[in-house]
Fold:
Amino acid sequence: MPESSESPLSDAAAHEQSSGPDVATPIIAWFAENARDLPWRRPGFTAWGTLVSEFMLQQTPVARVIPRLEEWLARWPTPADLAASPPGEAVRAWANLGYPRRALWLHRAAVEITERHGGVVPSDVDQLLALTGIGDYTARAVSVFAYGLRHPVVDTNVRRVIARAVDGNGQPGPPSAKRDLPAMTALLPDDLADARAFNAGIMELGAIRCTARSPQCDDCPLRDICRWRAAGYPEYTGQKKAVQKKYEGSDRHVRGLIMAELRHTHRPVTPAEIAGLWPDVDQLQRALSGLVADGLAVPEDEGYVLP
DNA sequence: AATACGTGGCC
DNA sequence: TGGCCAAGTAT
Structure:
């Protein structure tokens, strides 16, 4: 009799019978050997640091985030420190990370954490979701990575790995909490530490091996069980992603020009200076109004300043 | 549900 | 060159 009677099936293996091959075990093992050395994986990294990193990582590449994150945490080591600064300083420190509303939202979240949670980043997903700028991904990421709670964490990397390895599709369909969370839950190990490592590992796999454009399947821990690979990498036939609009000449572009100007000075930016940023007066006015409406620019006597 | 929202690197 | 992509959220 083999050792199966003496070594019971692991939790992960137990899922196998109803849910296909075990995805978690090879990913956890791979992650233990291949995890990048990133700031938020350092021992002693705080929950606040995790929250800040997750805000910055929303749609912005890791390499661009790291220097800004380190500056940010040196300047504002706690939520209360950030809450005590003007929001405009957060926008300035955000620099070129893009989507500067996130800086405003992060500042607002810091105020909320200070007021509602005594300055301690909450671990509860629903309390995190109630904070400004925190959605389904970030709430779970903070709860899991900062506090070790057991939840599925689903980002674009995770969705892509599951689409390929489990569903046999080259790309995931449109994001859907209704489908994405159950799909990840079905793969999640029962053990707390394993669940955390699996969440981090599958995200890392999507980020550095199972990438969108050039997957390195020969070095993938799932190469023997990946359904997309087994099927010969069929073209994706599902719903196409909405085409990203051209940036050059867009309203976003003009907003970006104005924001760069506001960040680079502590003096009000005059209407004349703003007028010099872009030839189309109507578009410039539209961008400026939008920024004021968003709270990123504030009109003063002399011109516009950060909040 | 579709769209707006920055900035830059990569092939 | 230019389209695609990047740890999403709010509306």
Remarks:
- The longest strand of chain A covers residues 298-299.
